[in-house]
Amino acid sequence: MPERTITTTEQASGNGNPAFTTLGHGVAEATRRGKRESQGAGWHRRPFGEDSHVQLPAVTYYRSPHWLHEPPDAERSERRIGRVYRCAAARRAGSKTGRSRRLSRGRVAAENVSSLIQSITARLSGVGIEDAGIDARLLLRSAFEWSAAQQLGNLLDPPPADRLELLESLVVRRLGREPLQYITGNAEFFRRQFKVSDAVLIPRPETEQIVVQTLAFVRELGIENPRIADICTGSGAIAVSIALELPSAEVHATDISADTLTIAQQNATDLGAELDLYEGNLSDPLSGEFDVIVSNPPYILTSAMPGLQAEVAREPVLALDGGSDGLDLIRPLFVGISKLLSPNASAAYVEIDPPIEDAVMELALEQFPHAGISLLTDLTGLTRCVSIERA
């Protein structure tokens, strides 16, 4: 198989992002809340039920990125991809507002945009969808090609008649419990919009912790040209974010799925990130030493797969199922990381699930006996990431 490489134009790094505060023995806790609506309803990768340690606090904008059970009331031939090229992201223009109160397939009809949002919200709430109001507004913006400001400014105007049928089709998809991010085709991560499709796992807000830890480690040690790898890159959200925040970094990303890498390539190009993408199993395509290695691998117990929330069940099984003990991918991942991680001043950050934290900790201590191992928590106090740092 011929080798090809894609790197895209570097772009100035974005605004600063959340930080995490270290709490004794290296355990960290997330310290910020993001704006909930810009992300839309987040999905969880961890079962949700009666176990008290998985319950979220009553007031929080970002929910845990782990998968939920259905709520009780509702009920990866290794090869390098691409070629160096540059591309600027195209921006979508807002549509002009039309005037009509015609029905679209008998469902979408309203005097003005505000009442239309209320109507859609009621329909979504009726099938047990959380954050129905947020979803309604985001679906409308997607169909009408409006920004949040345009939507606000048009609340009292009639909705554009030529967009109502499209809006209705999006609403029907959401009523069928298709993830909002798949419907709109994008998800927010580290204050940037990433393209997503049903070929990739939807980026979760709390996964930003991996980016934050990487930036903090590199900057604290003053590594001028860090070599960084993202294994199981998916949409490329982590790798692209790191590449944009650390323009001098040499970033490599791998995934076993060619379809997934197509999305990652598009995101890197659109956002102006320079990185190398490889198709292959875990760390197999990589060589040499790395200063930082990150990964958000599949880690859900196979036994928990049937009970996933309806939306999460629509995401790629390949990105979810971690095997009978959740460690099927983490075991070989740790072996690969141990071979690639620089022996001095290096780190690895891997997202995990609280139910397997003890097993992961034991595995990490065994595989990295001379490294500092710690567990990092999120806003809810749940273990979200294992940190492996070599002095």
| CATH-derived architecture of the largest domain | 3-Layer(aba) Sandwich
- What's the count of strands? 12
Using only C-alpha atoms, the radius of gyration works out to 21 Å
CATH class of the largest domain: Alpha Beta
Query: The CATH topology of the largest domain, please?
Result: Rossmann fold
Distinct helical segment count = 11
**Sequence stretches where pLDDT stays below 50 over 5 or more residues:** 1-39, 46-106
End-to-end CA span: 39 Å
The name of the CATH superfamily of the largest domain reads Vaccinia Virus protein VP39
Structural class of the helix and strand makeup? alpha/beta
Give the amount of beta strand, in percent. 5-15%
Total domain modules:
2
Q: Which descriptor suits the 3D outline?
A: elongated
Give the integer mean of the pLDDT values.
Answer: 80
Helix content: 25-40%
Q: What series of H and E elements makes up the topology?
A: EEHEHHHHHEEHEHEHEEHEHEE
Strand order of the largest sheet: 3-8-7-6-9-10-12-11
Largest sheet: 8 strands, mixed
Structure description:
The chain is an alpha/beta fold. It is 29% helix and 15% strand. It contains eleven helices and twelve strands. The strands form three sheets. It has an eight-stranded mixed beta sheet with strand order 3-8-7-6-9-10-12-11, sandwiched between helices. A two-stranded antiparallel ribbon has the order 1-2. It has a two-stranded antiparallel ribbon with strand order 4-5. It is elongated and about 65 Å long.
